[in-house]
Protein 1
Amino acid sequence: MTIDDSASSSEKKRGDQLSSLLKSMGGGGDCDRPACDDTKSALSAALQRVGEARVASKNSTKQSTYTECPPTREEIGTSTWSLLHSMAAWYPTSPTANDQKLMTGFMQALARFYPCTWCATDFQQNIELNPPKTETRDDLCIWLCEQHNVVNQKLGKPLFQCSIDKLDERWRKSTDPKCQK
Ligand SMILES: Cc1cc2nc3c(=O)[nH]c(=O)nc-3n(C[C@H](O)[C@H](O)[C@H](O)COP(=O)(O)OP(=O)(O)OC[C@H]3O[C@@H](n4cnc5c(N)ncnc54)[C@H](O)[C@@H]3O)c2cc1C
């Protein structure tokens, strides 16, 4: 067997493992949400890593020098905004009373426990002045965009145009070919 044959056979094996894993998780149909794409690529990457780790442990006894450090304020900020805008982008169009209550509670908990204390204090004041708008998906997306702009302005960063079209393009479904996975 050549190296090429062996590579394509392990790719096929990974493809089969991926299909059976997705089936066992109840997937397999069309994926609407990006989370589904992410699940596929995360599973595929995990299977690849397992394969590579097996080969590496056979071939080498060297210790990895890679260190994972706690996130910086900037990293936490960017990750948090990504989560918040994505949650808003996929919030129900007609949320139930309970959905609205949970989302408001989530924002309040974030403002209470956000790990940068002075950011948290400002965010608490901001959401007291302008409480979360949770009646519809559009309301929530635009409210959050305005909250993010309050912080952007404070930090001298560019402001984002808070229209639902711009927000969906950035956070829900981009038309940019570079964003197609
Ligand atoms: C609740 C909260 C409060 C914070 N308060 C502070 C603070 O007081 N002081 C501080 O130093 N840092 C604070 N941060 C962190 C700060 O906002 C940034 O996340 C951090 O400085 C990194 O900035 P960035 O340039 O990577 O882009 P980020 O501001 O993290 O933005 C990430 C991406 O979001 C998109 N985006 C930008 N603005 C908007 C918008 N209005 N609506 C939708 N999408 C947008 C852009 O594509 C951008 O690249 C806070 C973060 C959060 C979540």
Note: The chain has a mean pLDDT of 83.
Protein 2
Amino acid sequence: MKLTRSALVLVALVLWTFALSGPGSQVRAEAEAPWKEAAVRMSRLQALLEYFYMETGEYPPNLKVLERFFNHGIPDEAPKVTVPTDPATSKPFLYEVSQDALRYRLAPPDPGAYGAQALTLETLDWGWMAALARQRRAEQMGMECRLKIEVLATQCEMYAKDHEGKFPTRIEDLVPKYLPRVPVCPATGQAHLLVPTSTGYFISCPNPNSHGLKKFGYASDKGMVVEAMENKPRPARPASSPGSSPSPGPSPSSGQP
Ligand SMILES: [Zn+2]
């Protein structure tokens, strides 16, 4: 199952509305409390972060990436997305992202500027939607891995041209003349594999499982080989009735006439 882009945009707008009607919406009414303006801006920033997450399956490594992401390919005359800054200091908000890029925390650079208010915003809880976003990211990594495999195959052919038709027997044979380094699968960071075959070579993703595949590679005689696993796991859905399916017990009438 795939979410269309327009569906994602719609969800983003819903999130955006939610963010603005959250803690920030009172700010307009009581603009005298400076921390409230900061809360509004952080909510807007959060909406950008959550949209980014929907599109990529992870949160950005830093806030600068956000502007590049949103303004890429936008015509000059169109309004640009700017990352909101802290109203008290005009500095960027503090943004901490977890190592797996799946959680973040936002805070003003100087909370002291707002008195004793603890002012942090954390990752929205997406529930089962998070699984869809991860699936989207997995699809992107699959495309990236495939591209690297195809580049490897092209370089093997170049190698053969230079070596009287002989293909490389190890992937390292291509380095550094045909490739600056051995490419790695984006899903696992492991190096791609090259196995000699009777007809040439087979280049493979080191861990097709990580793409939900049984086989994922390029055979010199067949081209791309993509073999699905028998039971591809689907993203988790909200459980309809967890633990409420009691199995019928033994018949009470057993042994009775
Ligand atoms: Zn791979």
Note: The CA atoms of residues 228 and 243 lie 31 Å apart.
